[in-house]
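Supplementary Methods, section 5.1.

A reviewer requested that the exact input to the structure prediction be made available. We therefore reproduce it here, unchanged from the version used in the analyses.
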Amino acid sequence: MTGKLTTHVLDLYHGRPAKEMQIELWYKDPGGSRNPLRRVQTNDDGRVDRPLLAENEMKPGVYELVFDVAAYFLAQKVELTTPPFLDRVPIRFGIGCRSGLGSITPTPTITFPCWSLLGHTALTVAVSLREHEKSDSLPPEG
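The structure derived from this sequence is encoded token-by-token as follows.
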């Protein structure tokens, strides 16, 4: 399978990339067990230094990214509720093949309004699955 899995985390409360956020990547096997694949930390740009899954590691299946949101904001000295509104935020997604497109999977962008009712913060997470490292877009469908 060609492609790679990356992520980019933005801290909208502070208006900057989410530096040093802990992220876990899990694979859910067909039997339903969750298997840890990787634990990483975002860099100064809110990205990971290397793909979460490289081309040779990608296989069809169900994956989960878990973002350690509460620990990140506590480290930034943001006062949180007890318990935190968002603590460890999972995003479960599947990687598969579509006929005629090889192994391309769409690029979802997820926005979390964290504590928005209290006016505290917001967090944006972009998860990218790309066919080629230098590709910025997917081919049109159809």
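Confidence is low (pLDDT under 50) at residues 99-123, 129-142. These observations are discussed further in the main text.
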